[in-house]
Specification:
alpha+beta, three-stranded antiparallel beta sheet, two-stranded antiparallel ribbon, 5 strands, globular
Length: about 60
Amino acid sequence: MHGRSVPLTEAPTLDGVQVHAVDYTPEVHCVEIQPDASGPRREMTAGEIADADKLLRRLVPLQG
């Protein structure tokens, strides 16, 4: 978040989808998700982005 990597200990669920991989850097509109280990990556939906933002706010304390 904002240039910081956030290690996850378990696969997150974003908008009801448990995901295998997430590449989320909203500052440069990198919003990719891979729901299944053997499946392709795709662009995140608005709901998945909203849930990713909520998750990051919980995991990363605000600086300032």
